[in-house]
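Tokens for chain A. Residues wanted.
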């Protein structure tokens, strides 16, 4: 199965993606991981990426697309399928993706801006990747998964998140209508529900 996850920052994509990867035994394809791997391996594409990242510049769409195309051509993605995380971010990337990969489903995790702004101030994270909500965490600030100390990201505040949401709504939301028009978009209510309830909806939708 070849899946794209869409959803605003702090909408719960990471939590649901972790479950999906385990249950469906597919490959997690993150653009951030691809950039880091190519840079550390000194590949020609990685050397190009480094020119931008070292100068604090955004990696151009054309280069990002080439990196994703290369990663999706690997045997693990070809045999198992994949979940795309962080790509596509723009309509032009989505159009380019169609030239080298056929997507089976696009999961759109729907959470209102108001709920996200309220949620962000109560989000705690661990270096292992686990995330927690202050509503369920209680007084503990220790990761249940690895025992590490939890922390809050510097950009997890309403003012910064408002700017991130504006960027998302401008550049990424058009993807929702793009994939809805293709009949492969699945809207999932991610607000005021438990992670288990949300995941059950995702799992059932993908089975169909």
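Reply:
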């Amino acid at each position: 199965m070849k899946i794209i996850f869409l959803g605003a920052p702090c909408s719960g994509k990471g939590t649901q993606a972790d479950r999906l990867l385990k249950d469906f035994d597919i490959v997690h394809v993150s653009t951030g991981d691809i950039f880091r791997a190519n840079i550390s391996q000194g590949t020609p594409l990685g050397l190009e990426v480094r020119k931008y990242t070292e100068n604090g510049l955004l990696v151009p769409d054309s280069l990002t697309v080439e990196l994703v195309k290369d990663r999706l051509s690997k045997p693990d993605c070809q045999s198992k399928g994949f979940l795309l995380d962080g790509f596509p971010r723009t309509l032009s990337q989505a159009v380019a993706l169609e030239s080298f990969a056929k997507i089976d489903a696009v999961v759109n995790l729907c959470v209102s801006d108001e709920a996200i702004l309220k949620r962000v101030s109560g989000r705690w994270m661990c270096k292992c990747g686990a995330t927690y909500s202050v509503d369920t965490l209680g007084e503990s600030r220790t990761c249940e998964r690895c025992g590490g100390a939890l922390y809050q990201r510097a950009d997890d505040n309403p003012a910064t998140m408002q700017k991130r949401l504006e960027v998302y709504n401008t550049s990424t939301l058009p993807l929702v209508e793009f994939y809805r028009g293709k009949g492969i978009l699945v809207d999932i209510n991610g607000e005021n529900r438990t992670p288990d309830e949300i995941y059950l909806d995702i799992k059932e939708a993908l089975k169909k």
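The chain has a mean pLDDT of 89. The chain is about 50% helix and 15% strand.
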